[in-house]
Specification:
Blueprint (H helix, E strand, L loop, with lengths): L30 H12 L2 H27 L4 H9 L12 H22 L13 H5 L11 H45 L2 H5 L2 H7 L4 E2 L7 E2 L3 H19 L3 H12 L14 H4 L1 H41 L3 E5 L2 E5 L3 H12 L4 H11 L9 H12 L6 H10 L4 H19 L5 H4 L1 H16 L2 E4 L2 E4 L3 H26 L7 H18 L12 H25 L1 H12 L6 H10 L8 H5 L10 H20 L7 H6 L2 H19 L5 H15 L2
Antiparallel strand pairs: 1-2, 3-4, 5-6
Helix pairs in contact: 2-4, 4-6, 6-9, 9-10, 9-12, 10-12, 12-13, 12-17, 13-14, 14-16, 15-17, 15-20, 19-20, 19-21, 20-21, 23-28, 24-26, 26-29, 28-29
């Protein structure tokens, strides 16, 4: 069977053409052509005009529809698909082909420009290996598959953008090339010329060697560097570069000499004078810049010297307070520094000629002069350091001597000072002054401490005079512990800072410590570090957990709940029970009042006392009956710590007493327990 012929004509006519062989045939030479020509020539002008108008109308409508679709966000491929599916009537006939292709090209050009501009950072005009046209290629459509109308539409939009972009690119490249040329010349002059070369006139002679004539076609002359470039851009640029990059005053001297040195004579034997004379305005600005930079470098030099002294002195004191490790017979042993070693350290301090250093050193080494001091004093010292109350190391050392700071705390104080000093130079304040969580929680914690020093006088609460000292000590303690907490957290978490929640929890724990330590009669408690308190709290929690488990096993917890539940039962009428007992009380003993005409009180006890004893004894027995099923056992009672047991019977007696309206003592509850436990053995 013969293979059927497959037409090369497709219905995908947008941006496309017929495929296969297209031979040119003159329509005029064919029969059909002659018929068409005859018809065309015979048509009236009106009919011809109607046809042109019809096509123009279709094309106008198509253009408007294309604009509308692109405005709505349609893509070219979506429009083509819709046309092929006959979904857009305005674009559904062959009269609009050119219009659709042209608009598609225009809109594709706009999209391409947006992509290029969005990725322009990826193009480096300083890179001489790639042109801007090469950079564009990755964003351009495949014109081999596009129609002529598409290409024309694309070019109409893109060519204007491309022309402007190429001009700007050329300017950037030229400016960069010029900058590189000038920078290389400045580097050449700075590398090959010394201050002495500038003074003896060699600099400007060498500079003129860059004035090389370039070969050109035509008339006139060209130079690799012209005169203006040599003076204004290289020489003056060299001065500016020295002023900007100088790290020493010697480099600034070089810049100033270059600016003011006589340049000798020109080619016409004219006196050139100095750069400062020729370019007076620029020179004034450069001299001002050089002088300002000199002050900065001199200040930096003094600061660097002071920093070096501070670090060295701190290291000497730290070394003094550190024991010596010695290896003896393969074993490392620690010892105190001997007299010779201490004198050697003192000699290092003497070299600085500061009496404060020596006074502090002698104070620190005179152990017999030390006495136990209030730890709150150290906290206030550190807090004052953080608040910037000490301007230098010598003031801190004076303060430690005056405040009699314990030698064990000197090392820590110096560490705090060095850290605060470095932060201060960077404009960084202590975190307890800047972080809002710490600032807010400090206020809350101080108010909590203040509450311990309030006393009620009538209907008014008055703050005790010693409250301010307690709050001052508490504030200083919090500052020290906040700093320690932040450092500890960063060290344990790879430099990360605590979260808001973690800082809040820390401050809450700190508040509990402060409220417990600062009591009415103690405004300067012996405060340990937070970590020590935390360890105590952890140990306490551990012991409490163990006790709770023990109490649960012995039935203490359940029995206590049972007793409290029974006391709170509404059906138990304690007052009625007490009344019943009181009503049964007989004030006469064996009828003695009838015989002798006098009361029992004359026999050693009055009726009131007898009644009280009677009620207590009988009410205790009644309570034993009521609570016998509550779980009270001898094991339970023996499992309890004495303090907890005393608190328990006190609490029970208070509750029953409040419900019954009669005094109930802890001794009565203890007796109730004894009765219940005693009955369990029978």
């Amino acid at each position: 069977m013969a293979t059927k012929y497959k037409s090369q004509v497709t219905n995908k006519w947008i941006g496309s053409r017929y495929r296969g062989l297209n031979r040119h045939v003159d329509a005029r030479t064919t029969e059909m052509g002659q018929i068409v020509s005859a018809l065309r020539n015979d048509l009236t002008p009106a009919m011809n005009n109607w046809g042109d108008k019809y096509i123009e109308k279709k094309e106008t409508a198509a253009g408007a529809k294309m604009d509308e679709l692109y405005a709505k966000g349609w893509k070219t491929k979506d429009i083509k698909k819709a046309i092929l599916n006959d979904e857009i009537p305005e674009l559904s006939n062959h009269y609009v082909q050119n219009v659709v292709d042209t608009h598609s090209g225009r809109f594709e050009a706009a999209n391409t420009i947006r992509q290029i501009e969005a990725n322009l950072d990826a193009y480096d005009y300083k890179d001489g290996t790639k042109t801007i046209e090469e950079f564009w290629k990755q964003y351009l459509p495949n014109f081999n598959e596009a129609s002529t109308e598409f290409t024309v539409g694309f070019s109409a939009v893109f060519n204007e953008f491309a022309a402007n972009a190429k001009i700007k690119d050329a300017q950037n490249r030229a400016e960069h090339a010029h900058t590189v040329k000038i920078d290389k010349a400045i580097n050449f002059m700075d590398t090959t010329i010394t201050i002495e070369d500038i003074k003896n006139g060699k600099y400007f002679k060498q500079l003129m060697t860059l004035n090389t004539e370039m070969p050109i076609d035509g008339t006139g002359k060209a130079y690799f560097f012209d005169t203006n470039e040599l003076n204004e851009e290289i020489a003056l640029g060299h001065v500016l570069w020295l002023a900007d990059t100088a790290t020493t005053t010697e480099q600034l001297d070089k810049a100033l000499i270059l600016l003011t040195q006589d340049r000798g004579k020109g080619k016409g034997n004219n006196e050139l004078g100095s750069l400062a004379n020729t370019y007076s305005k620029q020179a004034r600005e450069l001299i001002l810049k050089i002088n300002n930079k000199r002050r900065v470098l001199e200040n930096d030099g003094r600061q660097a010297k002071a920093d070096a002294e501070k670090e060295d002195v701190s290291a000497i004191f730290t070394e003094l307070m550190t024991d010596v490790d010695e290896v003896i017979a393969g074993e490392t042993k620690t010892r105190k520094r001997n007299h010779t070693e201490i004198l050697a350290l003192r000699e290092k301090l003497e070299a600085y000629g500061n009496p404060t250093y020596i006074n502090a050193f002698d104070k620190l080494t005179s152990v017999e002069r030390w006495k136990e001091t209030d730890p709150n004093v150290f906290n206030r010292l550190v807090s004052d350091i953080g608040d910037g109350k000490y301007e230098g190391l010598d003031e801190v050392l004076d303060a430690m001597v005056e405040l009699n700071i314990n030698p064990d705390d000197w090392k820590a104080a110096l560490t705090y000072y060095n850290a605060f000093d470095e932060d201060s130079k960077k404009g960084k304040m202590p975190i307890y002054q800047t972080n809002q969580t710490y600032k807010d929680q400090k206020k809350i914690n101080l108010n909590a401490v203040k509450g311990n020093y309030m006393v009620q006088v009538g209907n008014v609460f008055i703050e005790k005079p010693n409250s301010w000292l307690a709050q001052s000590n508490a504030d200083a303690y919090m500052n020290v512990e906040i700093i320690a907490f932040e450092k500890r957290y960063r060290d344990e978490n790879n430099g990360k800072e605590p979260t808001f929640k973690e800082r809040n929890e820390f401050m809450e724990t700190l508040k509990n410590i402060l409220v417990k330590q600062f009591t009415d009669d103690n405004v300067s408690p012996n405060l340990k570090s937070f970590t020590d308190f935390e360890a105590e709290l952890a140990e306490t929690a551990k012991l409490e957990k163990a006790k709770t488990e023990k109490y649960e096993t012995a039935g203490v917890t359940q029995t206590t709940e049972n007793i409290y539940d029974k006391i709170n039962l509404e059906e138990i009428n304690f007052p009625a029970i007490v009344k019943e007992i009181k009503d049964k009380f007989d004030p006469n003993f064996l009828g003695l009042e009838d015989i002798f005409g006098e009361s029992d009180s004359e026999w050693g006890e009055d009726d009131k006392e007898s009644k009280k004893k009677y009620v207590e004894e009988n009410f205790t027995k009644k309570l034993a009956e009521m609570f016998k099923d509550s779980g009270i056992t001898d094991t339970m009672r023996k499992a309890m710590e004495q303090e907890d047991y005393n608190n328990l019977i006190k609490e029970i007696s208070t509750r029953i007493g409040s419900f019954s309206g009669t005094p109930v003592t802890p001794q009565m509850i203890d007796q109730m327990f004894n009765i219940i436990i005693g009955n369990q053995g029978t």
